[in-house]
Amino acid sequence: MVPLFGIFGAFHHAEITDPAQQIAHPAPVPLMQSGPIHIETDHLALTLFVDSKGHLLQRKFGDKASADGAGQTAYPAGGDGWYFEPALFVTHADGNTSTDLRVLGTSTRENVTEISLKDPEYPLFVNLFYRVSPKEDVIEAWTEIRHSEKGNITLERFASSSHDFGNGEFYLTQFHGDWANEMNMQEESLGFGTKILDSKIGVRADQFLNPSFLLSRGGPAKEDSGEVFAGSLAWSGSFQHLFERQPHGHLRVLSGMNPFNSRYFLKAGEIFTTPAMVWAWSKNGTGTLSRNLHRWVRTNALRDGDRVRAILLNNWEATYFSFDAKKITSLFQGAKDLGMELFLLDDGWFGKKYPRDGDNQGLGDWVPDPKKLPNGIGELTDNAKKAGIRFGIWLEPEMVNPRSELFEKHPDWAIQQPKRALELQRNQLALDLSNPKVEAYVYGVIDKTLRQNPGISYIKWDANRYLTQPGSPYLGKSRQTHLQIAYGRALYRIMARMKAEHPDCELMICSGGGGRVDYGSLQFGHEFWPSDMTDPARRIFIQYGYSFFFPPIATSNHVTHMGNHSMKFAFDVAMSGRLGMDIDVDKLSVQDREFAVSAIQTYKSIRETVQLGDQYRLESPYAGPRSAVMSVRGDEAVAFVYAIKDVPAAPLRLKGLDLAATYQVEEINLPAGAKSEPQTITGQTLLTTGLPIPHLSPFSSAIYRLRRTR
Ligand code: DGJ
């Protein structure tokens, strides 16, 4: 199989299989015969063209059925006539700051097209890659840069993708926020000038902005109509999406790793590969776009995207740092009794000299705390097995508290700036993954934990800070600007190794909540932790935001007491994705316990529909106090309706059903004693008039199961 992302070494054109050879004997630059290069999915086309001088032009990026444009530079390099933002900016070994790229050749293998470009005056090679997923209308784009000049070249800009969108009206939706407040949507019209969506925080993509956006043409993005693109960079570090409305009105979008503080000195023979920029497109609005992306994620990105996820109990909000083996063992039984399948032991289980009783110490010392767990992890995995539940554990392997044995031993392993006081976040520092010794250590933490405890089948990988003092004690004075890129690459190498060497261990991607919810890290994970905000009333918005790019199967939704809402409301919100709980199940009231048992049983009966089905957004929480989402799989569907204020009775128009069919509709997940009479309603009525929904009081909800009867 072709690897998913460029960073892991994409294949090369048959004639340039050996880059070293190619670099050593640069071929004269043949001028290509003019002609189109078609990169196409079922409905989306990227049409490129080589002019008589060998320059690569873009004729179209959008509807396959639309006419080709006149031709705009496809991947502009700076310094030789290009006066807008370049996709590539190179300072050559001799100091020349201009680059001219001409096409050497193109090739297509399986679903990847590679276009090889070269500077006629320099042995500088740039290869553009495009991978198509035809049915999902997704095109991934990434770039490889290499050279054989005499000395290093300096890469100042290195976009993964560059596209011209032509003239017209464009609306951009970004997904911004902060800790416990992720994925707020904001849409704006793109006027003249440059708009940048970016992050500069290094070890994760997001603290304030997800690396994903929507770009609609002709008006604001709509759910069921209109042309819309989704863009998302598969990279868990600093990113930049640059939207430039040029004076003639054309919109160009450049996307890639953020060049900010990342000047890269590329050695001769070294290959610089950018992460993939994932583009999806639909002319039928964001609904189709998201369903395509969800399918693409399940089949191309996420691990085991066709396998339903276990129902999980996490102890974080239940115990925080105060627990012992007895408490955890009792939670195993409690979880099992409720019908759950997996237990996740969160932060606080480690540290000997500096026990992890709070977030101020112990991080980095991955030995079980002898007071909390005198018999180690083994006792827990044994007890979990006895209780009949799987066991998972929390790790934050790339980070360190200064109050730790690790930091005492290796203070130079932490990212820091000389002559500056250490700036801590959550009392911790990030380890310098650009240092191969540190990379080996971090992988060792994971490997050792899993090898010593074969009963662990799930890891939550957390990362609770970002970079504010990006200095590497390892890289030396001339390569400090390599830190962020080197960190991200090392992180992915570690994650890839974990996936290869421990294929049966599932992985939850977490970064203080949603810091690493991106297609880059997701290729190594089974699911992600969207946010530390678990109040269901807020979570409705957060889940809605993620739903544009990420499928329900990957979105871990946990029932907690946050917000003091009813168990029903908390479960109804969590059940639209991968269900879990983060609650002290030993302390549940009789009534709540009873409800939880029945809700978990109900979830099992709709799990395949939710996790493997197609999701339809019915009503947006941004549009009014009532919101709704549904999932459809074959003859089954399930609709979730939420109210955060008082909402009068009003029908809910469903989607994704068969107009000609008839459905049995039943309200499920009802409190004990409540009963619902199944109704038979035609698809036509459900799709046009809608499903009757009664008055809903603030913070209430309903779930309806639909089964096709005819
Ligand atoms: C941040 C995560 O988002 C939480 O779920 C929890 O794991 C804490 N870290 C533990 O420190």
Brief write-up:
It contains 13 helices and 37 strands. 54% of the residues are buried. The chain is of the alpha+beta class.
Describe the structure.
Helix 4 runs parallel beside helix 5 and helix 7 runs parallel beside helix 8. The chain has three domains: 287 residues, Distorted Sandwich (Beta-galactosidase, Chain A, domain 5); 229 residues, Aldolase class I (TIM Barrel); 93 residues, Immunoglobulin-like, CATH 2.60.40. The strands form seven sheets. Strands 6, 7, 8, 9, 12, 13, 15, 16, 20 and 21 form a ten-stranded antiparallel β-sheet that branches. Strands 29-28-27-24-23-22-31-30 form an eight-stranded parallel β-sheet. It has 710 residues and is an alpha+beta fold. The two termini are 41 Å apart.
Structural Rg = 26 Å
CATH class of the largest domain reads Mainly Beta
Q: Tally of extended strands?
A: 37
Uncertain residue segments: 1-32
Instruction: Write the CATH fold name of the largest domain.
Output: Beta-galactosidase, Chain A, domain 5
Could you say what the CATH architecture of the largest domain is?
Distorted Sandwich
Q: Helix share of residues?
A: 10-25%
- Distinct bound molecules: (2R,3S,4R,5S)-2-(hydroxymethyl)piperidine-3,4,5-triol
Report how far apart the termini are: 41 Å
Give the domain tally.
Answer: 3
Q: Which structural class do you get from the secondary structure elements?
A: alpha+beta
Could you describe the largest sheet, including whether it forms a barrel?
10 strands, antiparallel
Arithmetic mean of pLDDT:
94
CATH superfamily of the largest domain: alpha-galactosidase from lactobacil brevis
